[in-house]
Amino acid sequence: MTSDMISIMWVVLIILFTLVEAITLGLTSIWFAVGALGALLASALGFGFEIQIIIFVLVSAVMMIYTRPIIKDVLKVGHNKTNIDSLIGAFGYVTKVIQPGETGQVKVNGQIWTAKGTSDDTWIELNERIEVVAIEGVKLIVRRVETESIQSA
Description:
single chain; alpha+beta; CATH 2.40.50.140; 2 domains; five-stranded mixed beta barrel; 3 helices; rod-shaped
C-alpha cells in the first residue's frame, strides 16, 4: 500500500470509531479513534506501517487504561439520572394505612407511591402527614410527621 492509502485508511478508522462512539456512548471506541489519530500522525511523519500499528495499539491501550476511568467518573457514564432523589425530604399524606412491616400508600407531590414506615413507626393512619426519608427500589420509606392529619386531597 502507498503512504497516501495508509493515511486514508487511518482517517476512515478515525471516522468509523468516532461514529460508533457517538451511537453507543459507551466510552470504548473513542480510544481507538485517538489511537488511529496517533497512527495518522506517524504516517504523516513518514514512519513505516509496522510502527504505525504499534503506535495505534499503544496509544489506544494507554488512553483506555489511564483516562477511561477518569472520564467515566466525570461524565457519569452508566448512571441513569432521575428526579426520584428529589422526593427525599418531601412531605405528603397517607392514602392507605401503613402497618408495621407492611406497605401502604402515600401521596407526595401529587403522585401516589407505595410506601413503608421506618422501623420506629408502628402504624401510620389514613391522612396522616408523612415525610419521605429514603427510597428503596420503587418504595418510599416514610416517617410520621407530628402534625394534624390532612383532611383533603
